[in-house]
Design brief:
about 625 residues, four-stranded antiparallel sheet
């Protein structure tokens, strides 16, 4: 392909990509067909072509083979995981980065690659309201100041922080009189890192790669957040055993339910540990992979309280900020800690500004690095901070709308407090029914959602991800979920809802399986309800008393009176208000917007009169 062909084909490709993203709601969010691992080999030659193929042939296979097998992450029907967004400015920034294709390991290798990254990371640090110690400009007046760098993922950032913390801890221990006789291996065997049992698996993997002990600390059962007192007690316990606490990871926006660790108290516990241990104190790393984008909005920065104690902070603009993957923003308060951990200076990489300019190869595990700052810079300039704030607030509002829809049907419940754009819900008090509902949703192929296990409570995660999502998309998603929920609950439950149940008779059996929801055999797909281990009465879900389920005992009263036991039901969680007793900021922000939806919600899924819900459910059942 020469320049003229590139010019012609490239323009066509830009038009095709623009059409794809503009009309993405028309595509099934999940791949078409019953794909199984290895499906592609049968559709492509066994070996690469010896002779060049015509562009039209490549383009045809892209349309007929590649796109139909893709999961469409930009779709408004994509509610699984956290967002992984792109945007036209981001794509255009990367077009230039790909054309330049520099390897910016040193300043001299491509000065603009390093200089733009420094500027962009300082812009972003200020926009989030992070402490000034994380700015590159903080290093200009004092040696060992901080700064930011763009890495590939938060997994890499956490590993990078832990390796720097490990180096700092070992070096400090070597200076202590009681440790001078110990080898590095002896010291390493005593190092302990801490995080919550809700933290991302990448924290555990970092501990494994660093060969240190990891402790996953319990969280508050109501908020699923780690507090500083739990961390303090764990560190004191380990010190009494002769171990060395050296690293703690706080999560702002956990993967399961977007819970926020109490950074204020965790930071205080780490600060107290530093006072006791001196320079060899505990390194506090903050992982805000998804939620970090929300701090562009001042109303969410109260969740950052305590961040001044952090030694490092990371989040993914590649999630919610519409800077496409890969792009992770990582800041440290002391660049020397990174450079002392990762610096190797072969002669062929030295230059006349070595030691004066920033060489990002000394801030990371790999040597080479892409020109990722360009797409970040394009996004911040083309949207502006105000445009990014509007994007975040809109996503939060839509999540609040979905939350109210879930709460409008007594068969469902929001199991834990909603934060930002993530709602975790289930069929009321029953893990097996929730699993069955998830299977039905995925079988429909109209939505993509995923499960989570939150301290034994099975939930379905529903995240507002796409900037293309509208209120109508949310309403249609809920109608599908609600109808499938009625299907899972069964015809007897629907009769109870409309008062046609004189006595419930035998307890109802619904689908149950231990296999992952996404792995459906043909025989499983044909089953509609045969083997649920838990005993269940549909009328119990219609009880107006939220605490009634805790008082039900098998064999007392009649089934329709609600005196029935739901075996194995998880203990309900009461969402906690802030200590002031007032609404949290995100609830206050959505209260006004959700108020205008309340009439529509009552019309579509009434709380006291569920006839419309039942009508849709019966219609759905009749077509199955």
């Amino acid at each position: 392909m020469d320049a003229e062909q590139y010019r012609k084909n490239g323009k066509e490709l830009v038009d095709r990509i623009a059409d794809y993203l503009t009309n993405i709601r028309e595509q099934s969010v999940l791949p078409t067909g019953n794909l199984k691992p290895g499906f592609l080999r049968a559709q492509l030659p066994a070996q690469a072509p010896v002779q060049p193929e015509p562009w039209d042939s490549v383009k045809r296979d892209m349309e007929n083979i590649i796109l139909p097998a893709a999961t469409h992450w930009q779709s408004p029907h994509m509610h699984a995981f956290f967002p992984a967004l792109n945007s036209f400015p981001s794509l255009m920034g990367d077009m230039w980065a790909d054309a330049i294709n520099c390897l910016g390991f040193t300043w001299e290798a491509s000065p603009i690659c390093t200089e733009l990254e420094i500027v962009a990371m300082d812009w972003l640090c200020q926009a989030l309201g992070l402490p000034e110690k994380f700015l590159h400009s903080s290093a200009e007046s004092s040696k060992g100041g901080g700064g930011g760098v763009i890495l590939s993922t938060c997994s890499e950032a956490t590993l990078t922080a832990m390796m720097a913390a490990r180096k700092r801890a070992i070096d400090h221990q070597k200076l202590l009189p009681l440790s001078r006789t110990l080898s590095e291996a002896d010291i390493l065997s005593r190092l302990v890192a801490y995080t919550s049992n809700q933290a991302h698996s990448s924290v555990e993997k970092a501990g494994m790669l660093c060969m240190v002990k990891m402790r996953h600390l319990p969280v508050d059962p109501g908020t699923l957040a780690l507090n500083g007192e739990t961390l303090r007690e764990a560190m004191e316990e380990d010190r009494a055993k002769g171990l060395i606490p050296f690293f703690a990871c706080a999560t702002l926006g956990t993967t399961g339910c977007c819970a926020f660790d109490d950074l204020w108290s965790v930071g205080a516990a780490v600060a107290a540990a530093a006072d006791e241990a001196g320079a060899g104190g505990v390194w506090l790393h903050v992982d805000a992979a998804y939620a970090g984008t929300a701090f562009l909005c001042p109303e969410y920065r109260h969740l950052l309280a305590g961040v001044r104690h952090a030694n490092s902070f990371c989040f993914n603009p590649s999630k919610w900020m519409m800077v496409h993957f890969d792009c992770t923003a990582f800041w440290v308060d002391n660049r020397d800690a990174l450079e002392q951990t990762f610096s190797i200076d072969p002669v062929y990489l030295s230059h006349k500004y070595s030691g004066q300019a920033v060489d990002f190869m000394h801030w990371q595990i790999p040597l080479s690095r892409r020109f990722r700052a360009l797409k970040l810079w394009y996004v911040m300039r083309c949207f502006g901070i105000s445009g990014l704030q509007d994007h975040v607030r809109r996503g939060v509002e839509l999540a609040g709308f979905f939350e109210q829809l879930v709460k409008s049907n007594k068969a469902f419940e929001v199991r834990f407090k909603r934060h930002l754009g993530l709602v975790v819900f289930s069929l009321k008090e029953n893990n097996q029914l929730t699993k069955a509902l998830l299977r039905e949703i995925l079988k429909s192929r109209k939505l993509y959602v995923v499960p989570a296990d939150l301290n034994g409570v099975q939930v379905i995660r529903f995240t507002v991800t796409s900037p293309h999502t509208t209120e109508e998309d949310i309403r249609q998603a809920w109608q599908l979920i609600e109808n499938l929920g009625m299907k899972v609950l069964g015809d007897d439950y629907v009769k109870c809802m409309v008062g046609e149940c004189s006595s419930c008779g035998p307890k109802i059996n619904i689908i149950s399986t231990d296999s992952p929801p996404s792995e459906l055999s043909n025989s499983e797909e044909e089953e509609e309800g045969s083997h649920l281990g838990e005993k269940y009465n549909p009328c119990s879900l219609l009880d107006d008393d939220d605490d009634a389920s805790e008082r039900r005992t098998e064999g007392s009263g009649t089934p329709c009176s609600g005196d029935w036991e739901i075996h194995g039901a998880a203990q309900r969680s009461t969402p906690l208000r802030p200590m002031t007793g007032e609404l949290s900021d995100d609830e206050r922000m959505t209260e006004k917007s959700t108020r205008k939806w309340s009439d529509d919600i009552k019309r579509s899924t009434p709380v006291d009169n569920l006839e419309l819900s039942v009508t849709r459910a019966l219609s759905s059942l009749s077509t199955q």
